[in-house]
DNA sequence: CTTCTATTTCCTGCTT
DNA sequence: TAAGCAGGAAATAGAA
């Protein structure tokens, strides 16, 4: 069962990075804690990092002693950020990434004021070099060192962002971009399926007909033609027309997922769930508010502007040309039981994330600010 | 291999 | 009448 609420039960990692109100624990105690194996066996031991020995033991001050607090937190999932795209990072992911980057660069825990990076991935992505430098500044750290670290962190961040962009460009509309007003015309399914995106380098979308042949052993019993077959009595939009009712009596598709629709030639992690997919659409200016938009962001209420387009995107991501809004909405309704989604009875095409729904936090729902700024620019250009 | 979750497909009945 | 909604039933893929 997916428990979307779980992340909120864990403490904010950055809270742990602030120095404790009581006197800081002695370093020796921390070593003893590690020796007892209370946390280091789970989270690793920073002190096992050989680079640490090259640094002197600084005084514990009010900066931060993040590693000490980090390793004592049992709920910490230090690798989560690796399996998300940057814009999906929460505050913990950002700091975890920074910790990792610091370790890779051979820095000590005193070189970076981690508490200044208690920000989500969207905010991090939007930061300029100078913004990072500003947050990197600390009275106990030499300014030139801060500048050097800030530069390295900035480069590291953009190296990752570029890699995400490169990999996301694998998916493109072959038949033309239905959202042509967006630039570039990339169907960024990776951002909608972020758990899979890191594995795309060895993955190409299946050609259904190729799959049919390659999997012939499995298909010997498949008397129901797939969507790619010319005998299929269903249109790509799942509609049934005219005398197709007669064909349906002969070629009635059985319920359930079509055989061979899975991907068998490679191993991928679980794809995003329907609620996560919706959340990702809503947080992406390429799809929100053009095909789906927030009705009331504070309540998690959203509206399908083009339900069929959303369903097609879902189908595209799942390599299922037969996906329809009717079927997609059925998948949505299964999430009522767990309060991941909640129905909004009065309005059509309006749904709501429940209290166990995914994190949909954004400071700019429907990208209104961006639009306003664009309008301002246009007004300045064409008064 | 079994069990479980998350769909996918089809369907009936109801509401707008 | 069409579109959307609610939810049962059966089936599958993939993960545990």
UniProtKB/TrEMBL annotation:
Pfam families listed in its UniProt record: Ets (PF00178)
Keyword hit for Nucleus: yes
PROSITE patterns, per the entry: ETS_DOMAIN_3 (PS50061), PNT (PS51433)
UniProt xrefs under SMART domains: ETS
Statement: the UniProt record of this protein carries the keyword Cytoplasm: no
Family (UniProt): Belongs to the ETS family.
Protein name: Uncharacterized protein
Lineage, broadest ranks: Eukaryota, Metazoa, Ecdysozoa, Arthropoda, Hexapoda
